[in-house]
Please model this.
Amino acid sequence: MSVTTQEPASYLGAERTVRSWLLTTDHKRIAVAFLVAVVGALFLGGIFALLLRLELLMPEEHWVEAALYNRLFTLHGVIMVWLFLIPSIPVTFGNFLLPLMIGARDLAFPRLNLASLYSYLLGSVVVIVGAIAGGADTGWTFYPPYSAQTPMSVSPILIGVFILGVSSTMTGINFIVTTHTMRTEGMTWLRLPLFVWALYATSVILVLATPVLGITLILVWLDHAMNFGIFDPAYGGDPILYQHLFWFYSHPAVYIMILPAMGVMSEIVCHFSRKEIFSYLAIVGSTLGIAFVGFLTWGHHMFTAGMSSFDAGVFGILSMFVALFSAIKVFNWVATMYKGSIALPAPMLYFFGFLILFSVGGMTGVGVASTSLDVYWHDTYFVVAHFHFIMVGGAMMGFLAALHYWFPKIFGRMYPERLGTTAAVTVIMGFLLTFVPQFLLGNAGMPRRYNTYPEHYQTLHVISTVGSWAIAGGIVLVFAYLLWSVWWGRPVGRNPWGVLGLEWTTSSPPPKHNFTLPPTVAHGPYDYWLGRPDEDDGEPRT
Amino acid sequence: MRTMESRVRDYFADLAQQGHAARLGIWLFLASEALLFSALFALFAGYRATYPTEFRAAAGVTGFGLGATMTFVLLTSSFLMAESVERVRGGRYGTASWLLGGVAVLGIIFLALKATEWGRHLADGILPGPGYHFAELPERGARIYFTLYYLMTGLHIVHLAGGVAAVGVVLALNRRRRFTPEYHPQLELTGLYWQFVDIVWLFLWAVFYLDR
Model:
């Protein structure tokens, strides 16, 4: 790549030393480092998922004995939830795009951002080394009293997740302060891109919920390592109190995963329909609504833990408010496409995948929020299928959509569209194949967390396992052609999609401080009725 | 002394924006800290509902006079902290240094008082967790009470010790004349943090010393 005289050097090419990457405070470089790390976590967590599915191919025990199976699903859950899903979109695309989208030169606290990266890396290493060398069999939820009594070493995982929580809190504070103080001239609150609103709501949850999880994990660690007995009934402790504290964070954590994905989808549906969002205020309101009501729903994880029917009813109804806000969003996205000029590149395919999978996940969520149904479905594959529809069908679709949509901005090169489309269809179909059978299995009574099962469940388990191979194949394909494209993809100009949005007005990849001059904003982010910008794919115009 | 312009980091437009970011940042940090302590207070409330008599009896063991003294020490330090910010705003840096020194000394006195108190409890057999063998109150509820007592006051001590260190840093900055009446965010932020730690103590005082 040659650097022209008019354009300042891109953030990728500005400095080339290893030190300039390790000690960078540029939000874009930190985002790329985070991207490499969370994709690594995705692959690692995925390998454990494949091993689980492989064992479930046959009804009787084959490769994985029961104790090892417990360790594998713990590793899968811990890595996917704590190392991939919770940080994924905010630390990568949030980090990269928030300053670009609001016209800022960087985040408000660039050194804090770097500290957040290193806490993430430290926490991840502690978790992974601890989990593989020592091992844990508690599941990703660390429920006492078992987590206090298990002979396996849970301590490194608890400490590692605590450090990851510190990283999350730093990112959350940074994003909120940046949104408040760094907006460029004319970027009013109601002109913020919806992705920025989603990051804002997510950050509020990160800042307010993560400390509760952090201190709770420390307490479990004291119980496990030093026998403090805070949650141990043998010493008068109450394990149910742990569940309250744990889910006070971990239910909102679901919205930490899904809200950024929803923000990505709001961007993509507008830009690839070339239309203004159907109702900006409804999307913003429902985003903040989910963040708020998310703090009041934790009890629905404990319907079968001896909760009074009155409390269960209250938590059930509050949980259904989340479905209400989500339905407002789905309605808005569909209405946005109405009479739009719809293009169908890979990001838009992931949007359709998201729309269908998230809707199914959401509606089954209303099902499990109903106490009478939950008692039946609790701890079965129905619940497993439900939360995978939200986490994989929702959050991971968002991650992949964002990765394709902003790839040309981040690396200045385009991915091969045909492979992109193929991979998107493979992942979505593979997902349906994997998790639709799990709804049926759960409804037929198959409990979760067993490595063996009665023979009459086998057909559905085989379909599910084959589906998991399709997901894996699709994901491997995605990262194979993306990695190729980073070096050999077709170079693009500022705005290869021909869409609105401040991030597309600077060069691809952007220069170190994002904009040559601070931009001024005169209209909303989706005002396609004003006309659409020309596609700038880097080819010379005649 | 550096000029005001040279203090603006290159990603901020001006000093006002930079100061706004710093203040908002510390408030959010304090909000997350409040939730950190809230989790423990919620746990305390849960166990107090389960073991009301044991908790009341145990609260009688902590010294009322000592608790009141520690509260007095911390409230005074907060007063000096607020005054030192006011002095810097008025350009009287020398007085501010003396006041900050006072804050640090009072913080250390608090830590010393807390250490004596913990020492006395430990000598009585009141240990956290498995080592608990207090003859007067052998019940399980009392053991949980004192485990929470050590955890919550311990977390507070960690925060207070961090505060003393921060006060030391701003004292050094002030002596090097790094603050101006208009721009002194490190001092302001340390002040807010110090008051926060003080307020947490007021709640700890209420549940561990007054609830008998």
Summary: Residues 239-273 of chain A form the longest helix (35 residues). The first strand of chain A starts at residue 413 and ends at 414.
